[in-house]
Amino acid sequence: MREVAKRVFAKEYAQSNLQEREGDTEYAPSYIITPTGAKCNRIFLVGVLTEVTDIGTDKELYRARVSDPTGTFLLYAGNFQPKATMFLSEAQPPTFVAVTGKSNLYEPDEETSITSIRPEAINESTEEERDRWVVKTAEMTLKRIQNIDEKAKKYYNINKTEYYQMIEKSLKSVTQTEIEEEIDTKIDQEANKTKEKNKEELESLEQDEEDSDEIEELDLTDI
């Protein structure tokens, strides 16, 4: 059974260097644990394919970079990713793409960690789909920050403010599309709910004051 592909921003993924394997066998699944606690075996992203380089010598191997509003994902595709390799060999950056692939962490020495993705599938995408991915990824990242996995919390001890700013920056990049209109509508709806609630509370207070005045008048009449 395939692992669910997680959504993380490029900046967070690039800062990830905690890896764990479930089981002792050669084929046991491995995961990259991100600073906000996303447990990534597979990743789904939508961004702009900015660069494709043929780095193969005796075999097909392509390196590609896909950017989101926070940074850049590094992709490597070779003989074991034939569909992704074919896509990259014909791609003409810059172009919007959707990528699903396996997470990978390479540590050439104790002080260096390089995250990358081995793409299982790459497809053409659109700016609107990228914006939708940004909004959904921001939402999921925010939820993780508010309830960080204990293992990630102890290992990274993140500065939450930095990640809140990352989310804010990513959302500011979303163009004026239907997504923003949807967000504006939701904000307006929440504002109207709050306004209506405040109005009801004010009316309730005014009614209580009127009732109190009536009681006082009755009391004075009885004197």
Shape: elongated
Mean pLDDT: 86
Q: Under CATH, the topology of the largest domain is which?
A: OB fold (Dihydrolipoamide Acetyltransferase, E2P)
Number of helices: 6
Largest sheet: 6 strands, mixed
How far from one another are the termini? 84 Å
Based on CA atoms alone, the radius of gyration comes out at: 26 Å
Q: Spans with pLDDT under 50 lasting ≥5 residues?
A: none
**% residues in beta strands:** 25-35%
Q: Write down the secondary-structure element order.
A: EHEEEEEEHEEHHHH
Describe the structure using short key phrases.
223 residues; alpha+beta; OB fold (Dihydrolipoamide Acetyltransferase, E2P); six-stranded mixed sheet; 6 helices; 9 strands; 44% helix
Write the layout of secondary structure elements.
Blueprint: E1 5-6, H1 10-14, E2 18-21, E3 30-33, E4 39-40, E5 42-54, E6 61-68, E7 71-78, H2 82-90, E8 95-109, E9 112-124, H3 127-146, H4 150-156, H5 160-172, H6 178-222
Parallel strand pairs: 1-5
Antiparallel strand pairs: 2-3, 3-4, 5-6, 5-8, 6-7, 8-9
Helix pairs in contact: 3-5
